[in-house]
Amino acid sequence: MTASSPKLEIRDLQVKYNAKDDNSIALDQVNLTIENGEFVSVVGPSGCGKSTLLKVVSGLLQPAAGTVKLDGKPISGIPDEIGMVFQNDALLPWKTIVDNVRLPLEIKGMPRKEQLAEVDRLLEMVGLKGFEHYHPKQLSGGMRKRVALSRTFAYDPEIYLMDEPFGPLDAQTRVKIGEEFLELWERVGKSVLFITHDIEEAIALSDRVVVMSKRPGRIKAEFTIALPRPRPFYEIRFDPLFKEMQKEIWACMSEEG
Asked: Residue 93 — left, alpha, or beta (φ > 0 → left; ψ -120 to 50 → alpha)?
């Protein structure tokens, strides 16, 4: 990566779900860059292609046209530098919490003693010390989400791709987990592409919020979030600038019907 290269660069992206039918275009002429350490959230109407965009960046879906580059190199297959966090926590139910979190470390070939030390550090960081030998079904939804985040942090990717990761949680747990994640992210400072339908969540987390149009999805507008960091995930919502940004983004989205 050169000094001037963005972490992620998407140019003239088009995605079709049926190559012979122009009505099946999911994304069209999408252009987006994410700088190193930048947190970018994408919002837009249902069906606009937000999750499709993540699938392309992760290498799970091939575009019909355009390019996607990570650190200046075209994405081919599923890059090792990418970490995914889904709505579903995707934990392995037969493995303990320790074994779920240490899985990426084991795949990397880290010695077992170092694996366990790193897992211990991560579980303490997310407040799950003492639950090491539990299985996912024994934990609440919020606790499972913390395990999933710990596993992604253990993987230590260059960029985090997050598809409405807090969506299934109740409102109180969502705020709590969002607050914890924001604190964790501000420590590591990696690039994030975050998909959400929640404007408040997007503003509270992000350096920039991207609004997509209805299908076929295009980048309609971008908003720089000039709120200082570190930020309190919930209390920042009472800041006048936050309220102004919320109003502007909502007006932009509401035009899409």
From this structure: alpha
Give the tokens for residue 71. 């650190």
Q: pLDDT digits over 185-232, tens only?
A: 888 888 999 999 899 999 999 999 999 999 889 999 999 999 999 999
- Round to whole Å and give the CA distance between 215 and 46: 9
Per-residue pLDDT at 179: 86
Question: Do the beta carbons of residue 197 and residue 43 sit within 8 Å?
Answer: yes
Q: Would you say the C-alpha torsion 123, 127, 132, 137 has a positive or negative sign?
A: negative
Instruction: Quote the tokens at residue 129.
Output: 């010390």
Rounded to 10 degrees, the C-alpha dihedral 20/26/31/36 comes to -120
Q: Give 73-103 pLDDT, tens digit per residue.
A: 998 888 888 888 877 778 899 999 999 999 8
| Residue of 220, 218, 197, 194 lying closest to 206 (CA atoms) | 194
Q: What is the largest CA-CA distance in the chain?
A: 55
Please give the pLDDT value at position 138: 94
* Burial of 247 (C-beta count, 10 Å sphere; 0-12/13-18/19+): exposed
Distance CA 68, CA 30 (A): 10
CB 100 within 8 A of CB 92: yes
**CB crowding 185-210: b at 16 or more within 10 Å, else e:** beeeebbbbbbbebbbbbbbbbbbbb
Whether residue 172 contacts residue 207, with contact meaning beta carbons closer than 8 Å, is answered with no
Q: Hey, CA dihedral for 39, 196, 253, 159, is it positive or negative?
A: positive
The whole-model pTM stands at 0.87
